[in-house]
Amino acid sequence: MDPMTDNGTTGRRLVERLAIGVLIGVVAISVGGAALLAVYLNRIGDAADGLDRAEALGAYPGRPEPVVVDGMNAVNYLLMARDSAGELEAVLIAHLSASRRDLTLVALPVDLLPGTSQTLAASYAVDPLRTAKDVEQLTGARMDHQVHLGLDGFAGVVDILGGVDLGGGRLDGAQVRERIDAAPDDLTRSAWTADLLRATLARASMGVAITDPNRFDKVMDTLTPCLTVDAGLTGDEVRLTMVESRVKASEVLTWPLATVPGSLGEVADPVALARLRAALATDTFPPDGGPEVVPATVTSTPHTSVAGSTTPMGPASPVPASTSAPAPGGTSSPGAGSSPTSVADGRPTATSTAGR
């Protein structure tokens, strides 16, 4: 573990290691220094062990193998956000790189047909494990863990954090829910849910999330009831991820999967899907390589926003497909031109933190 320094750099890294947990659906906390790290890691692990559990996706013929780079596995968390009625509202793949330096939130629409006759929302209503298997078969990537997040409960976490900077201003939990509910289509809703998680991470990384044990307990008491994780996501694994993480809040990407309309739902654009499969298989998500969706403005300070965002929580003009894009169904190297999408286009984006 890094030694403490006087310039606050190490303290910032510790904060971001802990705050990163919100994006894998385990915890949303921030601490002020290294002296508290061990204490909070133990409490995080204990809280993770006490979460509601769902069955983990077991082995089946043809299940994708983990991606290993330099002896470390990349990790994919399938995050399925639901409303108070238990219906699926958003689907994200949180891809944590093998280096533990990069986190990418792949947004999938709940009305996506993953090569079957059922949308993700329909399969989730029957059996969430079927949804996880469908996503694995669609992307060619193993979904190491499943996380079910209640968005209404998560709004309470936003309130404890003092709101998040999203959509051009500071929003409380109820306002965040209203914005997400107002999304014009399912892919945009998933992308905006990713932006909510990024904004929460940015807020936690400022050191405002946890200033005393009482606030920590309030965060945990509010977050844990709205989370269900698979049986394989143990407290020990959560602790290890927190220690290993080198992700910076300012560099988390949102990567929406472009789709085209089908007769029963949305269908992944072949070029965009090939690019996503290549990115997951190579553990590489370059910021200029995916489809484009203008995100909600996310800020970690009042003067910080997502680069290129001109219409917070709203659509932008579509970008034409690149003539250099590969043929549908072929492989694609990250960084190739983008393709048409059924929602507003915009490139995968990261928060941009001024002065950091």
Quick tags:
356 residues, 3-stranded antiparallel β-sheet, alpha+beta, 33% helix, globular
Structure description:
The chain has 356 residues and is of the alpha+beta class. The protein contains ten helices and 15 strands. The strands form four sheets. It has an eight-stranded mixed beta sheet with strand order 1-10-7-4-5-6-11-15, with helices on both faces. Strands 9-8-14 form a three-stranded antiparallel beta sheet. Helix 1 runs antiparallel to helix 7, helix 1 packs antiparallel against helix 9 and helix 5 runs antiparallel to helix 6. The longest helix has 23 residues. The relative contact order is 0.17.
The beta-strand count equals 15
Query: Helical region count?
Result: 10
Helix share bin: 25-40%
Distance between the termini: 22 Å
**Quick one: biggest sheet?**
8 strands, mixed
Strand % is 15-25%
H and E order: HHEEEEEEHHEHEEHHHEHEEEHEE
> Shape from CA axes?
globular
Low-confidence runs = 1-7, 25-35, 291-347, 349-356
Output mean pLDDT.
Answer: 76
Q: How does the helix and strand content classify structurally?
A: alpha+beta
Radius of gyration: 19 Å
Biggest sheet strand line-up: 1-10-7-4-5-6-11-15
